[in-house]
Every structure is written in C-alpha cells, then in structure tokens.
Design brief:
9 helices, 3-stranded mixed beta sheet, single chain, Phage tail protein beta-alpha-beta fold, 3 domains, 30% strand, 13-stranded mixed beta sheet
C-alpha cells in the first residue's frame, strides 16, 4: 500500500469518531506486520505534526515512551471541548496504537519489551499494570518495568510522583525503585514522590511498606499515616506522622474540603498542582478551618478564593520560582 494512502487512513481514523467494531478492525490492521515500517513512519509523522501544532492542548506527552496504556487518558480527553481537546485525544490514541505495534513486534521477535508509562506536564494519568496493581501518575511522571512484571518480584522504576493500589500477592513483593530509595509492599496503598532535585517522600495510607536506602539498609517499616522523607543532599531521612489522605487526594477528579484545617488544604494542593506550597505560620494555619471544592481552577484563583474565606490577610509570594509561601497576618 502506498505510504500516502496509509497516512490518509490513519489520519482519518484519528480525526473522526468511529464505532467500536471499526476501531477493533483498525487496531488489528495496525498490528499486522505487513507494511509495518510505513505505518510506523506515518504515526511518527502525525505525532510530530501534532506536537508542533500550537493549538494541541496541554495534555500532550512531553516525549515518546515505549508503551502507553492509560485507563483515563482517552476519557479525560473526550470531556474536553475544542480543537485542542480533539487533537489531544487522537494523539493519545496514536501513541497507544503505535507503541502497541512496537511491543507486538518485539514479542514476535522473542524479546519481552520494557514498558514505560508517562503523564504529561500539567496532567494526570491512571493505569492498570499486568499484575492488577492500579497506578496514578502525577504531572510529569514516568513509571517503567520489564518482563510484564513476571518473576519472583514485581519491580517498577519511578521518576516523579505516583499513587499505588497494589494487587496482593504475598509470594511476589511489589517494589518501587527511585534513584535513592526502594519501597517494598505486599498489598497496600501509598504515594511515592521522587521528582528530580526534590526530597523523596513515601506516604502510607493503608497496609505496610518497608523503605530501604542510605542510612536505613536494614529497612524501615511504615504503618498507616506515617511518612518517611529523604533528603537527597544530606542522605538523611526523617519519619513523621501525617494525614496520608492529604497526599493521595490528587488522584481524584476534584477535591472536597469540609471544615478542614488550612494547613491540610495547602498540603493537599501541593500535590494537586504539583507545586511546593507552604504556610509561613503552620501553627496558625492548623487553627483555621475551611470548606471548599477544587476542580481544575488555576492555582491563583484558588488562592484568591481562600483569601476571601480566611479571617486574616492572606498573601502569596514565590522564592526562586520553586516554593510558594502563604503568609497570614491581621488586617
């Protein structure tokens, strides 16, 4: 089949809604080894055209990955309106089909591929791993694994932040590897934050995890509502009591705060917006209770809304464009 015709077929599929039966036929055709290189070239061309398009929306992946199988990416894109949302949707589909083709070819050749899951900047994504474990990736995060998570241990590598709801399998521990720490679970719910240049945090919501790394080679066992924070620079860590739900709420479609301390709200918003937000006066922030709902509003709008609710003057300022401080003072 001519290269131009192949590209026309793929482009038409991505730009139009099609019935499930046609979609299944299309995917079978994409996985057919015949004209594989031409299909590959067409998808790469479409990918490049969309990434270069200034109206392509904010959900675009920042780089290709080896395989993308997202539970929520397509449905989230369908809910968006306008040209940017439509392009993001077919690009997401293109990525999934393209890398599914790549994986299929690797399997045919006898090689089990590595899989890399990713979320773009400013977006979140959810995935179900081959063992049944559910994973939510926060903005700009990647998770990779090999061999379909087979073997005696289930090992994944994380860059960024992720929430894990681990499928129980006592005979095969689930291990999250970061560049400095290993977090081992048998069946549990927890968040790991391991962005480059920032402290690594493990926050346990349910079950038990064991954290190993510098200065804790024997392993440190956490119980629910405990966290271990590791300072990359000093290679030191601290264990503290936390409200783990503040660190996992970002996986939901919206945040509902009912009579909650401002301190906890700010901690949750830090994960929701993937930003370092701190209260200059933590003690005062813990004694101010607020009720509000957050969906997809810009951070500035939320701060203006909170400023209207608190009985103090609220100001925000940034330090080195990395940390946003919230200052409360009497009017």
């Amino acid at each position: 089949m001519a290269d131009k015709k192949i590209k026309e077929i793929i482009s038409a599929f991505f730009h139009n809604d099609v019935p499930d039966q046609i979609q299944e036929t299309f995917e079978k055709w994409m996985l057919d080894p015949e004209s594989f290189q031409e299909k590959n070239d067409a998808l790469e061309s479409l990918w490049k055209e969309t990434v270069d398009c200034p109206c392509s929306g904010e959900d675009l992946p920042v780089r290709p990955v080896d395989s993308v199988f997202g539970d929520a990416a397509a449905s989230r894109s369908r809910d968006r309106r306008g040209r940017g949302g439509r392009i993001a949707l077919w690009l997401s589909t293109a990525a999934a089909v393209f890398f599914a083709v790549l994986s299929a070819v690797l399997y045919v050749s006898g090689r089990v591929p590595d899989v890399c899951l990713a979320s773009s900047e400013g977006a979140k994504a959810s995935f179900t791993l081959p063992d049944g474990t559910k994973v939510w990736l926060n903005s700009g995060s990647t998770l990779s694994y090999s061999d379909g998570l087979g073997g005696g241990r289930r090992v994944v590598n994380l860059e960024g932040e992720a929430f894990f709801d681990v499928e129980k399998d006592p005979g095969r521990p689930f291990i999250v590897k970061t560049d400095a720490l290993d977090i081992t679970a048998l069946g549990t719910e927890f968040t790991v934050s391991a962005y480059e240049g920032k402290d690594i945090g493990t926050y346990l919501q349910e079950g038990k995890v064991m954290v190993t790394g510098p200065r804790m080679e024997d392993g440190l066992v956490l119980t629910p509502d405990q966290a271990v924070i590791f300072d990359r620079t000093s290679n030191r860590y601290k264990v503290k009591k936390v409200k783990a739900s503040n660190h996992t709420a970002w996986i939901r479609e919206k945040l509902d705060f009912y009579n909650m301390p401002l301190y906890d709200i700010v901690e949750t918003l830090s994960h929701w917006y993937n930003a370092d937000i701190r209260c200059s006066d933590p003690c005062l922030a813990k004694n101010i209770n607020l009720s509000l709902t957050v969906r997809q509003e810009p951070f500035r709008e939320i701060m203006l809304a909170i400023a209207e609710l608190v009985p103090y003057k609220l100001e925000t300022h940034s330090e080195n464009n990395d940390t946003t401080y919230i200052t409360l003072s009497k009017n």
